[in-house]
Fold:
Amino acid sequence: MNAIEFKGVSKKFKKGEKFDSLRDLVPNMVKIIFQGNGKQNGELKDKEFWALKDLSFEVKKGEVLGIIGPNGAGKSTILKLLSKILKPTNGEIKINGKLSALIEVGAGFHEDLTGRENIYLNGAIMGMKKREINERFDEIVGFSELEEFIDTPVKRYSSGMYARLGFSVAAHLDPDVLLVDEVLSVGDMCFQAKCMEKIKNMKVSGTTIVFISHNMEAVLGTCSKAMLLNKGLVTAEGQTEIVVKKYQQGTSYKSDVSEIAHRKNSIVEIKEVSFRDKSGKVRHAFKQGDTIIIRATLGATKKLFNPDFGIAFYDEKGTCLYGHHSKVDKYEIGDVYGTFQVEVEYPNIDFQPGNYLIYFGIYDSQGLKPYEYVDRQYGFTVHGNKGETGLIHLPHFWRIGQEVVL
Amino acid sequence: MFKELIKYRELLWAFTVKNIKIRYKQTAMGFLWAIFMPVLIVISGIMVKKAMAVLSGVPLSASQIISVSVKALPWAFFIGALKFATTSLVSNMNLVTKIYFPREIFPLSYVISHLFDFFVASLTLAAILFLYKVGASVYLLWLPVMVLFLILLTAGFSLLFACGTLFFRDVKYIVDVILTFGIFFTPVFYDASMFGKWETFLLLNPIGSILENINTIVVLHKAPDTLWLIYTGIWSVGGFLVALLIFQNAESAFAENI
Structure:
């Protein structure tokens, strides 16, 4: 039996402010009131875009579906459609059974209420009956490890305690279908492990789960099948290992995040940014410790006097790992005009395995005002030893002995 | 129309309890606040009445003070509930955009939690009226009907304004102004009959006719005026149903328009 069915589902969103003029506003309002936010035609109007386009999939009862993909791929939109917060523009969604969403832990908490009161409130929001909460109350408190603080208002809690309480309530629901959206990034490692354990137990007991995460280990560990999404379209579907591998290999994607910030009408244009190995061959995937050469092709319509270049590396969470300027490096660019190329060589790219995005910008000679930049539109993947943690790889040597000689 | 609401009735109750608890958390006066607000309205009403008495030369009578008190409580309930309900969706944005349940619960839970205040204050007033031997009559049986109308009318406006504020914050400001000055357009401090031939005009304001009818029942010991009873009934029941219909139709657009 299918627990979830998506049939040709599309969802349209609008960029910018909702109503631009009074003239659009009144007809829009009347439409919303009398027709709801229901079916519209499939055409895009000004400023609109498809967050999901003609998406169909099924999840059988007891299956765990992992949805992966870059930011802006439409993953969270799927969950919001499933939980009925959003209504699809087109298509049909069917869900069999009671559904619970673990979308944001503690979203229903109220600061002034105590932990105990919040358990009851949050349980009710998640669709539990008071009797059910009574029955499981001790279990919930035990799981959260907050026995001592259960009668303290949650505004006095640390963020970790807050998240623990939130997850504990959610973990004790008895849904037929559970939606999980990147909620495991909270709490210490012990608690995270406990949460994963809980989700696996639910899977064993036959709960259908839709799981969204950027944590590939978690996806590999829990999901019975996976779906790779990019810009609202499914690019791969099927066995978890294969889909995850595809995502990790093929991530020379262009991210959407920065297009809004992109400057037009600049006197210089960044035509292309590519990543190359030592021999100059274009590549998207590198091994930890490889040499990587970033080459940018630019076109200037005016002569630029001794401009400055800036480059920064970001991981998928948006953390800047390293950034530098040619000015700071004391490298004089000189005057440039027309089409030209600039290259930076990094002999040792010691990042942890994962996907990285770069920022590249050209600035005035003071290094203050950017003429033009591309923010996190180009990226590459690093492969390497698994089992290390953190952001970078530190070259290191082990020694052992009675008296370590340095 | 009511299927989802009935299914989620426990949540409606949980939200109502939450609202009540939160209003009195970390307050020194606690539940006394439920009485304090209407007392303020009554005191200002007495001031107005006194001024009128001085002007007209007719001394202020006890029945006038009673009349102001009886009308102040439903009025306090009406504006209190509306004020909170109007911003209820917007101030719970994180829930509206993240978890599904019928959104009517937000405004309606504020109406019910203010009803709690209303009843606390009403019991106090009833005790005072009893001490002053205002007396009772068979017409008091009409009181539950009028209170039901009052609740439905408040709930209807609450749904409409909460929904409106979600799309346009203008609604919130308009409601603020109306609630501040509404007392001048509503027969709370004065009686509609004081306006002579304009009385009908004043009573067209549905909350005004409800207040006057409550006054007729409790203070004047008469049956409510049939015509105005029907009029308020249509406003309350019809208004509530229409508001609920509009609210439920617009509901699916909430998350992306908030």
